[in-house]
Amino acid sequence: MKSLDSHIESVLWTSDEITSRVSELATEISADLSHLSEPPVLVGVATGAFLFLADLARHVHLPVAVDIIRAESYGSGTESNGSPKISFDLKLDVTGRHVVLVEDIVDTGSTISRLIAHLESKGASSVSVCTFLDKPSRRKVHFKLLGNGKFYRGFECPDYFVVGYGMDFAELYRNLPYVGVLKPERYKCQSP
Ligand code: 5GP
Ligand code: MG
Ligand code: MG
Question: Residues in domain Phosphoribosyltransferase (predicted)?
Answer without folding.
Answer: 16-169
